[in-house]
Description:
Layout: E1 11-15, H1 19-30, E2 34-38, H2 47-50, E3 54-55, H3 68-77, E4 83-85, H4 90-102, H5 106-120, H6 128-134, E5 140-141, E6 145-149, H7 152-157, H8 159-167, E7 173-176, H9 178-183, E8 193-197, E9 201-203, H10 206-219, E10 223-225, E11 229-235, E12 238-244, E13 247-250, E14 253-256, H11 263-268, E15 276-285, E16 296-298, E17 303-308, E18 311-320, H12 329-342, E19 355-364, E20 371-374, E21 381-385, H13 391-407
Parallel strand pairs: 1-2, 1-14, 2-10, 4-18, 6-16, 14-21
Antiparallel strand pairs: 3-9, 5-9, 6-8, 7-8, 11-12, 12-13, 15-18, 15-19, 16-17, 17-18, 20-21
Helix pairs in contact: 1-10, 1-13, 6-10
Bound molecules: flavin-adenine dinucleotide (FAD).
Amino acid sequence: xxxxxxxxxxxxxxxxxxxxxxxxxxxxxxxxxxxxxxxxxxxxxxxxxxxxxxxxxxxxxxxxxxxxxxxxxxxxxxxxxxxxxxxxxxxxxxxxxxxxxxxxxxxxxxxxxxxxxxxxxxxxxxxxxxxxxxxxxxxxxxxxxxxxxxxxxxxxxxxxxxxxxxxxxxxxxxxxxxxxxxxxxxxxxxxxxxxxxxxxxxxxxxxxxxxxxxxxxxxxxxxxxxxxxxxxxxxxxxxxxxxxxxxxxxxxxxxxxxxxxxxxxxxxxxxxxxxxxxxxxxxxxxxxxxxxxxxxxxxxxxxxxxxxxxxxxxxxxxxxxxxxxxxxxxxxxxxxxxxxxxxxxxxxxxxxxxxxxxxxxxxxxxxxxxxxxxxxxxxxxxxxxxxxxxxxxxxxxxxxxxxxxxxxxxxxxxxxxxxxxxxx
Length: 424
Ligand SMILES: Cc1cc2nc3c(=O)[nH]c(=O)nc-3n(C[C@H](O)[C@H](O)[C@H](O)COP(=O)(O)OP(=O)(O)OC[C@H]3O[C@@H](n4cnc5c(N)ncnc54)[C@H](O)[C@@H]3O)c2cc1C
């Protein structure tokens, strides 16, 4: 058995080196714990690798909204639509989908939005101490975010979502036609209305961003062990370590931050959590002929176009197909078609060496709220997974909450809405 790396200190092992694991580990280390991240692959090789990079406090609007029940069947019937399902996966995902639809009542959505507002508060600024310490300010932008609509009627149809944002303290400015096109000249004139969210930010490279925080964690005395965690070494309610394919890693406390792969760990500790994955895709156009100055969410195509250091990244879509099925790269290619509609200056076709595609597994809960809290079996294990569409935006605050729970302090934001036991 390996000994804890820093004697005389409580040793915390963090399962998973994505944005949630790295942020949790970083704050825990600052709080004085001895911390080891246990990760089988490279840092940020999962969902944190290829996302749209947005740090959006405005993402308080849950995925399941009133009225979805009428829209979902149409989306599902279009194989390249914003939401798709591999029919072989339907029996597995059906209970999740049912919970998803149930989560979309007005009353529940109001509560979810309030909980998300707490979790997303001050993103991206809440990252600053970590980013400054990592010398990675060049990877962070605080230029805002634009959500665009084809027509004013489409914007008005989203009124409830905008009321939710307003009620939860999100500032925004509506821009129509010329005002919009002047702000974003690359945008197609087919888009008549945009909403500028000045408080939002983004990173120009999510993978490098998370890796930079992890490198700073190492420099500050944290450890990273390359191993796949299999389970917990428990004596009664006390944790002694993690069982991995590289032997036991000694630990007094553990954080489960294995993204879409976290359910197995909760099950081992007696918690039944409906975690599944909403697979998402991106396509990057290198040296694009047209690119926005800030991230743009196309509300009709339901994807985000983010200017990144690697090119223009078009990211989004939701595919229900579990963790095993091969990617459907047509979905990534279709994002390029949608991107061309958004930015007519893009070329009709591209040589393969100017494109790059990716698929990732969002760790998603049906009520759009992550799982943050103690395990049923032992308070030595804290869960931090299920961030769905908001893991980048919520990473730093989630790490703070994890640290509060492990130190036994009153969490700075109420964690009851994120309870692992909320599904009974
Ligand atoms: C297309 C797309 C666009 C997105 N855009 C945004 C956005 O703009 N803004 C935003 O906030 N969010 C966005 N997201 C969501 C965001 O990417 C995720 O919520 C976030 O990355 C989840 O982070 P995580 O650390 O929980 O999981 P991951 O990043 O998936 O990390 C989990 C880690 O756990 C490791 N692991 C798995 N099993 C084990 C094991 N047995 N032992 C040890 N380690 C293990 C994995 O190797 C992995 O490194 C987007 C997602 C997608 C797919």
